């Protein structure tokens, strides 16, 4: 069974500082994908970054980067130069294949608060 | 602009009543999904559909039903059999069999009267 673990229920970071949000996963699949989503208080889910299990380079998207350590089964999100607008819930999710389709399993999330 | 529209934004259900949540997408995506989110929790999959007129149960399908008569639409009915329906419901869509992310609507918040 696939499982995502986010061990930090809440995190605080000073504005303009970098922060790392932890994500570990468990799967027996060789091919899988890892996603990070941001959920502001308004509720919508915003896609941030994707890492495939066969990608050799760590993914980057603007201020977001994914620290992918395959042997340790971790896919931590790094946000550089935090902004007040980064305050939100952050979810790590894993794509897995089943019954001829692909689905996502989500972690329980980390609430990030950016302090001015 | 392409996107996913969920309606209504807020919905109230009386005891013993069925209610239907709407989800429409104009992204030309093959696959559509319904998730439930409880406070402080991640998203759990209710139902998903990869193609018109076909859908599969997710992890928590009991008390819910869906239909997929059109590619653009994937309504979710919360039946009276769902004893704890109060939650935030999110609809998503994606290309089938791809590494592209799922795109989400803005959600419907369902409460019991």
Question: Can you walk me through this structure?
Answer:
The complex is a heterodimer of chains A (about 120) and B (about 110). Helix content of chain A is about 0%, strand content about 55%. Chain A has about 120 residues and is mainly β. In chain A, the strands form three sheets. In chain A, strands 2, 5, 6, 10, 11 and 12 form a six-stranded mixed beta sheet that branches. In chain A, a hairpin with a 6-residue loop joins strand 5 and strand 6 (about 45-50). Chain B is mainly beta and about 110 residues long. Helix content of chain B is about 0%, strand content about 50%. In chain B, the strands form two sheets. In chain B, strands 2, 4, 5, 6, 9, 10 and 11 form a seven-stranded mixed beta sheet that branches. In chain B, a hairpin with a 5-residue loop joins strand 4 (about 30-35) and strand 5. Classes of the chains: A mainly beta (about 120), B mainly beta (about 110). The interface of A and B includes residues 93, 99 and 103 of A.
